[in-house]
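Usage example:
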Amino acid sequence: MPVHVQPYRWSGHSPRVRVERAVEGRVLSSIRAGRDAVLVGARGMGKSVALRAADTALSADGWRVVRFDGPPADATVAACQRRLADALSLADNDPDALIRRFLDGADGAAGVNGLCLMYDEIEKYPDGVRRPWLDALATIGRGEPRFRVVAAGGVATYLLDHIAGSTFTSRADRHLLSPFSLAELAQLVAGASEDEWLAASEVDAVYSLSGGHPALCTYALESLWNTSPDVRPVAEIFHVFQRDQREFLRQYAAHTRHASLSDAPERLMSAIEAHEGAVPVSVLIAVTAGCSLPWDQLLDLYLASGLLVWSQDPTVDPVPISLIPSVLPRPARVEEGSADPAERLRVDLLSPLGTVHLSAPDFFHRRVTGAGRAEYGLVPEATFTVVLRAALEARGWTAERETLLRAGRTDLKVERVGHEGNAIIEVKIWGRNDYETAHNQVCSYAGAESWGVHVVMIADRAVTEEEYEAAVLTGQMFDRRTPPNLLAGAWRVAGTSQDGAALHVEHWLVRVPRR
Amino acid sequence: MSDFLDQNLLRLEVELPWARAAFDQLGHDGFTITDARRIVQRSWLVRAAIPPRLQQRFGLAPELHAAVVERLQARDVSRAYDEAVHSDLRVDTDLMLVIGPNAEMPAQVARVPGHGQRVAWIPPFTPLEGHLAHSLPRQDLFDERNPVRGAAVIGRRMERTALRQRLDAGGATAVLGLRKVGKTTLAHAVIDQTDSSTLVAWVDLQRVTVQDLLRGTISDLAGQLGLLLRDDRPGLPNDPLERLKALVNRATVRQKRVCIVIDEFDLFFEGDNAPRAEPLRTFFGLLRGLSQDGASLALLLLGRDPALLSAPRMGAATNPLLGWVREYWLGPMSQNGANDLLHQIGRRVGIEVTAVTQAAAYGETGGHPLLHRQYGSALLAMIAESGGFQELALVDSTPHTERALKQFRSSQAVRDVGAEVSTLLGERYPQAREIAVELTHEHAPTVWEIYGRDTEAQRILTNFGLLLADGSLVPWLRWYLARFLPSPTVRRAG
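Running the assembly step on the lines above writes:
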């Protein structure tokens, strides 16, 4: 393990190791072409880093750049004006006159090539301040190509419009941040050291669990820098993140939610899960009824939050959309549904399992076999467990990993407020470890308090129902069920708990094909 | 050439000896220098008449500005643009030639912001026509979302004439229309051509950031008039409204006409900062009184909502705008104007947009200026994708137009304009939106079959340029509403 100075700092905006993103160039192109820019991204997607990069590039071109990282203490238009005057070291009450004096060289010296104001975290400005202030600046910039404005934020960037429209947003270029690609993540890893300090398999694991979300990737790399993955598996790192960084996750969710969106985000996510990889336009229209944003803007918002990818082409039907599996909280419907927790858990478990199937390629990583060959294979079991845990918690469950229960540690123990007892979920990968004894294993964890017991079997090849029964259910009393949509097999299997109680174990076979 | 010009050119060549070769080549290419002025040391602004053949080929105005500099500064580009705007449409506002001494100049030009296209020209000063043919297509002139001025205003001849006549007649006019349909561009096109006998005070209400919007507006107008009159005689009142009145009267005494332009006037009546009705009535009442009492005063309002002007009362008394302000609805461009736009800008960026493509573009956009430009942008992007820039690449085939249509509809501008129109109709004119949504149905009957003739909602759609003469919805909006709003149910009249 390297013992150099820590190159990663996930909570900072001036990374020592960084990846140049295409969106930074696009923002610069807008400014140089005489257009304002809106930079859209949820918490941790890299807005501030991108703004700093643009600042550096413009400054090298002779621009004066002023960045504001949030509203003034007194969040009013007048305070924004005063703050601007202070930043330019000029005294003028009128922003128009102020900006012109600055551009034309207030002290008689040559003026700069341009003035660019960057407003980060526009979520934090009151509605009655951010729109009129940005519109005023945009109006000044209309006739003055030397003056440009960049606003960065999440959902607030879509809520700037008034019923009469907004001069700022109607003329600015909108640029979306996106998650790191695997190549970009690899670049971020390689940038820290000339030595290969992190195995490719671990890079893949970080990618699988973070979905490429920049802050999450950086968090993981920061944790892994001086720690061996053998000592602290990648999945464990993200488990700790979910436990310890609740404020971050809360702020992340705030960047993607607003009352005016109604429950459209939840319905949208459900619709994407229900339609395998391509959603009809009619469905998108239906799920966004009552939402203040049209469906294309809602998809863009969640693309810039690292939750999904879509083609960004509104002319096709159906529209290709896929969810990115990660530990990030996703808008999820917490329906009243059945009062029976077992039934409710079944519904809430099947949804992310469907997503796992649809997002199959994201769960493969490179690994080196015992013979020293590199091959692609499924990520470890723990990765799937962490993803399921995040999905269940988003639906209102409390899910603990590796809880000691009787005979050993179960992958997930799941509880719900208002219901006594718990459910147990064991995740296995076909062909690995003790997958054939999954049923007996999970029975050994269960007790009288266990109202739900599940085995989730992940398979990277086509496993027939007969094969499964022969390998896993030999000697068991079982009832083969019609598998739910997107799953490859489903059984209800009789079992006996450690304390002799009769129980039923639900087995789910999930195909995660290599495509 | 005049002696003055000759002397200036001599001074220029002494200061910047390398520029001589550029002027020799310009002369060889048929350009004629019409003006040369020193801005600062080693920085000159030259004006040159363009040979008609090149005007035609590149869609240029009769003259262009050329900066002859060792180091280009943004404020010089800005200054040149301001002069071009007020050059009586002679100087091209979308092109600036930057003549420099060495290979660093193209990079400098790329870093300096400015309007339109800026082309660096350096030794060995190859023939300018070829250089322009190579350089101009690399800058998308179609994608302009701000108001344009000077020679960059294409089309709208009838509208310019009509508005000029109204302003000359005095009184009050409200130019109404959708956002980005060209209201500000039209107003500038007329106002920029007024002579020095007319004093113009222009306020965009979005720029007024003080808490008291009305007081801020009046102060701004009074400040502008005071500067224009250059009248520092004592005796002007402190109160902004009284000051404005006094300045208008002083202008009248000096036989000057006053034109007050208020852009985004809707903000006087909506939003958190909207003034109270009583002071607003006093302000407009003053202007009306001045106009009708002999002062040569014209008021021009730019905005969207006619209801604000024709409400019978403003506060506790009669609305002074009622019966005084005449509405002038600005819809989309005429087909000829829209065709000219694509053709002229197309030539500038190296594509020949022929009749078939012009018709397809107009058929889709209905002549909405910004959307029509975005269609041109889509054509340009398509040409660039298909193999780079060829000389006058032809755009005249079904595959071209189909791809351009797809690219056009995918553009952020189209979706943003669609969202704005949909929201505006839904919030302010719900019946009009209901009609529009009904008309998105593939086999929808005409609006008259559904709703009968001449309803208020139909007039709104027609005034906004969203309803075509045959009673159908303009195609780009029909596509947008069908793609993003719930399906309509068809109704019948009666």
